[in-house]
Amino acid sequence: MTNCVETRLRVRYAETDQMGIVYHANYLIWMEVGRVEYCRSAGIVYRELEREEGILLAVVEASCRYLAPALYDEEVIVKTWIAEANPRMLRFGYEMVEVSGGRRLATGETRHVFCNRARKPMKLPERYRAAFGMETRGELTASES
After folding, report:
1. Which of 43, 77, 113, 114 has the fewest CB atoms found within 10 Å of its own CB?
2. Average of per-residue pLDDT across 89-108
C-alpha cells in the first residue's frame, strides 16, 4: 500500500438499515469519499479536472468485501490507495476500519477509465500522470501543454 490516504468519517443514522448496521451501498459512497480525498491530497481537485480539463474518471467496475458491520455513530477510517495505474485506467484499493476497536469492516476496489467530455475513452495528459503514481516522460508534448 504505497501513498495511502486516510479519510475519517462518522456513521450517520441515515446510513443504517432496520438492523442498525450500515446499509451495504453506503460503503461504495465511502469509497468515493476516499477517492476524492486521495485526489485532493495528490494536488488534483476532481471538480476542476472535470470542468476545466474535460477529463472524466468513469467507474467501470466496483467490488466490496464486507467483513464486519459498521454501526451508527462509529468513527470509520477509509484508507485509499492506487493499486494500478496507466494512462488509460486507474484501479483504487480501499480498506475501511472502525477506529476505536480497529475492526476491519470492508475492503474494496474500483476501476476507472479516463474519458473526455463526449464520454469516450482517452489517455490522461502527461502533466497529471505523476499525481496518479504513473511514471512520466519528463517533458510535455505540444498537444499536452
Report:
1. 43
2. 97
Catalytic residues: 17
Task: Please name each of the domains of the chain with its CATH number.
Answer: 5-132 (3.10.129.10)
Pick from 108, 111, 93: nearest CA to 24: 108
Give the CA angle between residues 55, 57, 62 to the nearest 5°: 175
Give the sheet arrangement for strand 56-66, strand by strand: 5-10, 75-86, 89-98, 104-115, 56-66
How far apart CA 141 and CA 130 sit, in angstroms, is: 15
Give the phi and the psi of residue 65 in degrees, each rounded to 5.
-110, 115
Pairing of strands 75-86, 104-115: unpaired
Return the pLDDT at 46. Answer: 87
C-alpha 26/C-alpha 69 separation (Å) is 12
* C-alpha cell, 27: 460503503
pLDDT at 79: 98
DSSP 96-117: EEETTT--EEEEEEEEEEEE-T
Q: pTM higher than 0.85, yes or no?
A: yes
